[in-house]
Structures are given as C-alpha cells and as structure tokens.
Helix-turn-helix domain-containing protein (Natronosalvus hydrolyticus), 235 residues
Amino acid sequence: MSAQSADTGQPALGALEDGIVVELELEHPSLLLGSTLRRFPAVSIALEYWSELDDGRTMVFFAVRCAEDDLDSFEAALAADPTIADATLVDEYPRKRVYRAEITDDTLRVTSQITEADGHILDRSSGQTGWTVQIRFPDRDGLVAFNRSCDRRDISFHVTQLRMAKPGERAVLGLTQKQEALLRIAYEEGYFEVPRGISQDELADRLNVSKSAVSQRLRRAMNELCASSLSNAPN
C-alpha cells in the first residue's frame, strides 16, 4: 500500500528552474466530490491524503468544515455523491470532521494529465462549486496541454492567476508558497510566542482570506514541516 499527499503532491526541493505558476478553477460534477461542492458552496473541504490499497481501491481522507445545522444534509449529499462510496466519519473536532471514502470509477481524475504536462501541484482547495488548484508548469506548453485535456473531457477551466516562476526560486522544504508566506508572517508577528503577538483573525485579515483558510493552511504547513524534519532525523 502506498500513500500520496493530496495537499501538495511531491514537495518542491531546492532551486526551481524557470517556468510558470498558475492558479486554476476546475469544475465538473464528476470531479472528486463535485456534486457535493455544487450543493454546498460555503463548505470548506480539504483533501488530507489518499492511499492506493493492494486490492486496487483508492481511499481518500478529507476534512470538512461547515455549520452544525448543515451537517445532516451535508452527509446525505456525501452518501449520494457518485464520485465516492462508503463515506465514513473517522474523526471529529469542535468545528471540523474528517471522513474516509473510496474513490469510485465514475470520478474524473486530473492528476495524471497534470503529470503528463510536466505539472507540479502546489496547492489544492475547494472553491465555490469546484476545486482551486495551483500548479507549476515548466513552460506555457504544459499549461496549454493540460487545458486541452480538460476541454476534451468538458472540465470547466478558468485561470485566476498566472505568473512567471522566479529564476532560482527556492521553497521551504515541502511547503507551498501560500503556506510559506503564512508561516513567515505568523513568525514575524509573534503568532508562536506566549502571549501571541497576532491572532488567526488578524492573520486572516492580513492575507485577505477566511479564518478557516488560515487554520487549515497553518495545520498543513506545520504537518509538512514536522514530516520533513522527522523523516530526516536520525533514529
């Protein structure tokens, strides 16, 4: 059984060559959890990781944040979503639930097309009615190739941000650019000090994102840092 990160794919190591970084909004009812995202645009879903089992099944773990009043109807939507099967609650927190589900054969997958276009997934999060994905391509040809593969399968493809990757650009081991930027501000403003110099609400205001997005990004960033540090530490 092999596990793979659903947040960043393979972490970026060392200096990056020239290329482009693009943020895309992808939408199709057959994308993972596509019908559920359409029914609950205000719900925040974060893919934690997926795992390929020996019997060929793919299991995905995802964290959900939504209003308490919406939980029953949200879980009913999960049960009816054709892209997953056997959604099971595996962990529960005051404002978050973690589910495990099997990815069905009806699911449209895009990771292989991104890989074929030499793309590297930097970040992925639920949007209003689909997924927001940040990808680094070595050149525009890769972006065009991925766009064409989406067109062939009727996947809505909308570019929200596009920039050139900086020559010699370096990333903190395992972190996306958004995660690194958040950690840098949090550290410089004293978030990790006692007492804290800045709150999550204030970090959200600084970055112009929701408090839940800050919370998720901080958790993922700290998880990546721990995984990278502990995996390289001597036993």
